[in-house]
Each structure stands twice: as C-alpha cells, then as structure tokens.
Amino acid sequence: MWETIYGRRELVNAMQKAISSRQTAHAYLFYGPEGIGKKTFARVLAAALNCTAAGTKPCGDCSSCRKVLQKTHPDIIWLAPNGKTIKLEQIRNLKRQAYLQPQEGRLQVFILEKADTMTEEAANSLLKILEEPPETSVFILLAWHPAALPSTVASRCQLYAVSRLDKESMEKLLAERGLEEQASLAEILAWSEGIPGRAMLLADKTARQALYDKAVDYLSRLAETDTVSLLSAELAEERELPGLVDAAALVLRDLLVRQSVSEPEGLLMSASLQLPDDLAAKWPPRACRTALRIALSLLKDMQKPVNVRILLERALVEIKEVLTHADSGRSTV
Ligand SMILES: [Zn+2]
User: How far apart are CA 58 and CA 84, in angstroms?
Assistant: First the structure.
C-alpha cells in the first residue's frame, strides 16, 4: 500500500523502518497544508500497524488491510471536528475507548483530523492520555501546522511534515484522475504547488476564480484597513491559508505582468481568470514587486515549524505599508 503514496520517500522510509523494527510511537503528528495527503498517509500507516502479513506491511491483502481499505476496521477510529472544533466530549469518548482492548487488531488507531481545531479543554484532556498512552493505542494527529496545536500536545508526538509533490508526481496523479486533458493544466499545476487536494479543487474553474477573488478582496481590504490585527486574525482562521497567500502572490504577479507588458495575455498565470482593472492603476509596479516579495517569503516561512500567526501579522503589516503608501504616494504626484 505504500506505493499508493506518491513521492515522500523519506517519510515512507522512516515509517517502514519503524514498522519493520517494531519501534513505532504511540503518538504521531503529521502536518502540512490542506489537501497535501495527510489522511491517505494516516490510512496506510494505520493499516501497517495492524497488518497480519509476515512480510512488508501493510500488505493490502490480509483481512485487516482489506477492512482498513474498505473503512470498516473496528479498531481504526477517525475523529473529525464536530462543527468547527473538536470538543471535549469527543475526546472524552475517544479516551474511554482507548482504554479498552482492540476488537480485532493488535492496536487501536485513533486518527484525529484537523487536530488543530481542538478546543483548549479538549487538547488538555487529550494531553493526559498522550502522557501515559495505553499499550494498545496509537494516536495519529493531523494538522496543517504543529504550531497550531498547544506545544504540550505537539511535544508528545513524533512530528513529520508531509511534503509537497514534485511536478512529475503531480502530473502523474492528475493523469490518473483523468485531468491531464484540462485546458488549464499548466495553470492548475502552478497554482497547486505540489498539493494534490488543491489541484483537485482548482480543476474546477469556479473554485479557482473564487480563491483568486478572495485573495484580491483581502489585498484590497488590507490596503484600506486601519487595524491589521483584526484582518490578520480573520485570515489566520482560513482553512486554506497557504492556498490563499499563494493566490495573493499570484494576483500581485499578474498585476506586475499587466503593468509591464502591453499584451500580457500569454504571460498571465491566471490566463482564464478575471483580474479587476482598477488594481493595476492603484498599486504601482514597485509596490506590487515589494508586496510580492513579502508574500513569497511568508509562504516559504510558513513551511517551517514556527508561530504562523506572528509571521502572518508581520507580513501583513509590511504589505499594508507598501500598498497604502503606494496609494497615497500616487495621489500627491
Ligand atoms: Zn495486511
């Protein structure tokens, strides 16, 4: 089943080694942007932990593996936010079950989707069991960033980044889903930046335009607002934050292209999307270039295990400075 995971050789090797030497941990945290493939990875690991084959695990063929694939294994328990958050009651139920013996397998595997949405009480409650996990339980937490979880929880887990796919793997994956004929394949590849789930989403033109519009909206509001911290808090809540910052970078890049070339059609990344006309006049090339540089460096920094909120706010303050200044600067010329 490992072969169903594209790329990520390092991560796959680390897991295979742990499985074959029976040195698996009781808690894992897999992190990466929405759509990167964390759930797929968690499923394969859960299968490996309970596979009954003698050779390479998971074999994909024993009764345990087949149940994992069919999502009917009674010892693989998935937990997702109830509404916007994972609540204390959900963690309490999970803990009650974790102290019981597995029904069929060697281990009970609890997979917490969007673990970063746990309420403070839920996280504190989970922490207790992570400190002394039952022998027969494994917890797999999925989050977009370790810093989005309380450090006490993250420090109890083995941390692994689920990395982006290279272009070749992305093309292979898109072809497998029948999307290689898409007219805007190049655009989708550029936008999705190695994130399979994002590519699937962007294959829908309406979704693509919606993300682009949202980025334009945030940039416009940023240039006009007096309180960056409010906007920053709102932005930090976005599930698709990296995708959105990425889209903002794309908007800025497209603005630059439009400002500097008389016939930009072939050069625009978002060739099939609409970019508001007034923006190119409002923000001069120099402002766009500086703002783009800040956005790109933010994207790069967001991949490191750091406090994203602080990074985000700092970048927004800088971009605001550039855009607002550009606005008022022009009016005095
Ligand atoms: Zn198996």
Answer: 33
- Residue 65 CA, ligand 1 centroid: distance in Å: 4
Task: Compute, in angstroms, the gap from residue 173 CA to the centroid of ligand 1.
Answer: 24
Domain spans, the chain: 2-161, 204-332
This prediction's pTM: 0.76
Cα-to-centroid distance, 75 and ligand 1 (Å): 14
Alpha helices in the chain (DSSP H): 9-20, 38-50, 63-69, 88-98, 120-131, 151-154, 167-176, 185-192, 196-202, 205-224, 228-236, 241-260, 277-282, 285-301, 308-332
**Separation of 22 CA from ligand 1 center, angstroms?**
15
| Spacing, Cα 61 to ligand 1 middle (Å) | 5
- For domain 204-332, give the fold: Zinc Finger, Delta Prime; domain 3 (1.20.272)
Q: How far is the CA of 19 from the centre of ligand 1 (A)?
A: 12
Residue-level pLDDT, tens digit, the chain, 333 residues: 888 888 788 899 999 999 999 899 999 999 988 889 999 999 999 999 999 998 889 999 999 999 999 999 999 999 999 988 999 999 999 999 999 999 999 999 999 999 998 999 999 999 999 999 999 999 999 998 888 899 999 999 999 999 889 888 888 888 887 776 666 777 788 778 888 888 887 788 788 788 889 999 999 999 888 889 999 999 988 877 888 898 898 889 888 888 877 666 666 666 666 777 778 788 888 999 999 999 999 988 887 667 778 899 999 999 999 888 775 554 433
Which token pair is 224? 């006009």
Distance 39 CA to ligand 1 centre (A): 18
CB contact at 8 A, 252 and 291: yes
CATH of the domain spanning 2-161: 3.40.50.300
| CA 98 – ligand 1 centroid, Å | 22
Residues with CB under 5 A from ligand 1 (ion): 51, 53, 58-59, 62, 65
